[in-house]
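User: My instructor asked us to take a sequence, write out its structure as tokens, and then describe one feature of it. I'm not sure where to start. Here is the sequence I was given:
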Amino acid sequence: MEWITIILSSLFTLISPVGIVADQVAEGVIRDRLYQADLVDVRIDNTPNFRLVGGRVDRVRFAGRGISPIPEFRIDILDVETDPIDIDLPALQDGKFALDEPIQAATHIVLKTEDINTLLRSPRIQELLNTLEFNLPGASDRERNRYRLSNPQIAFLPGNRIQITVDLADRVLQEEVEALVETGIQVIDGHQLVLLEPTIVIDGQSVPQQLINAFTEGIDELLTLKQFDDWAIVARVLQFNLQPETLNLVVYVRVDPSSPLLEFED
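Assistant: Let's start with the prediction itself. The structure tokens for your sequence are:
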């Protein structure tokens, strides 16, 4: 979420006691912060305009199309609309982005399957996979870190189900087989992602359900947006929909002034 902080900071470091921000200038600054963007459109609403001098903004609307915060990751659609924003101007004048009041926003994100798979195939993700200690269900402690994951790929299926294929390399036997994971996804209470009827097939052989249960035990604790509470952030999923080529997501976010997310200095 760091790049979202950069966008917000870019918008409001342009506010000064002697003038107001032009939307076009804000768009240019945001483009400079992103690796690439097909479209960036910013609307800053304030009535009357002199309230900007006091650090108050009625609403910010940001629309991005084909934007890449980093080279490996492209977002097809990103729309953000905020409630009123109250900025700490003294902190801003010292080069820090801070808020006097919590900021609330609704965010609409559309990701294409091909863009997600481009990210999954990137060296950045492979380096992350190389750090994982991965064991097959039922493996002994002696076999810890025996297996290595590579070449992950995702596909969206009907009924809000996803399919993930990945190469599973056995470092002991020097063999590599394909593993296929399929599961439904449901969002409960806006924050909890639940896996529905997961299946795992390794080298064409189905993994028994009791082993899948052992493998996924405790994973629900990782699939909750409440983990952001420690960052003074409330996030809730308002809409979650998978299509064959796209993931469509609408999220409500509330960020308190105390959040470390805002600890950004220009």
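For the description part of your assignment, you could build on this observation: The longest strand covers residues 175-188. Try explaining in your own words what that tells you about the chain.
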